[in-house]
Amino acid sequence: MVVTGKHSAKASGALDDLTEVLRREKFPALYTTGLRKPLLSSCEEAAALAAEKKAAFVVGIGGGSPLDAAKAIAALAANPGLDREGFSKKPGNPPLPIVLIGTTSGTGSEVSPTSVLTVDGVKKSVSGPELYASLAIANPAYTGTMSYNTTVSTGLDAFCHAVEGYFSPACDDITGYLAEKAMPMVYRGLKMMRLKWR
Questions:
Q1: Which residues fall within 8 angstroms of residue 23, CB to CB, at 6 or more apart?
Q2: Are 134 and 99 in contact (CB under 8 A)?
Q3: Burial of 37 (0-12, 13-18, 19+ CB in 10 A)
Q4: How far apart are CA 91 and CA 84, in angstroms?
Q5: Of 183, 105, 91, which is closest to residue 144 (Cα–Cα)?
Q6: For the CA atoms of 108, 111, 113, 119, what is the dihedral angle to 10 degrees?
Q7: Mean pLDDT throughout 20-28?
Q8: Which of 101, 103, 104, 82 is closest to 93 using CA atoms?
Q9: Beta carbons of 114 and 20 less than 8 angstroms apart
Q10: What is the pTM of this model?
C-alpha cells in the first residue's frame, strides 16, 4: 500500500520513481491519498483495505502526516479488529514492513518510532520500536519542488528538532554531537534561502 498526501509525492518525483520500481519488480500497488493531518478513522479504513488485499508492506511518501499515517496503517493492517485503546498500546502482531520516503526536510518521521494522528478531534501519538521504518529514503532531490514558505518552515522544524535533541534530558554523547553539527548546518541553509529569494 502506498500512502501519500495531496500532491507532494507526485510533484517531487518520488511517486513516479516508486511506481517505476514497483512496476519493474511486478508488485501490484494500492494507493491511498490525501492523508494530510490524518484521522485515525482514515487510517483504519486504509488498513482494512490493506489487510483485505494482503498488502506485503506499506510505503509512505510526503511530509510528516503521510509518513505517520503509513506507520499507523502498517500496525492496524497487521492487527485486524484492533480497537483504539489497543492501538495506543503495543499491538499483538508486529506491523507490516514500513518504507518511508520524505519530501520535506523537517519532519523526522522517517527516522522516528512515533505516529501522530487525530483521534476524536485531538492529536495523539503512539510510539514504539516496532514503528521504525524498515527502510527510510532521504533523497534531497525530492525536496526541490517545495515552495519557499514550506522550505523555510520545514527547515525551522529541522532546526527545532536539533535544539530539542540537544536539550533533552535523554541527550547522550552521540545525540549531542549530532545536534551540535546539525544546528549550524540548518542555520546556514536557512540563511542561504533568505539570500536566494531576495
A1: none
A2: yes
A3: middle
A4: 10
A5: 105
A6: 40
A7: 92
A8: 82
A9: no
A10: 0.86
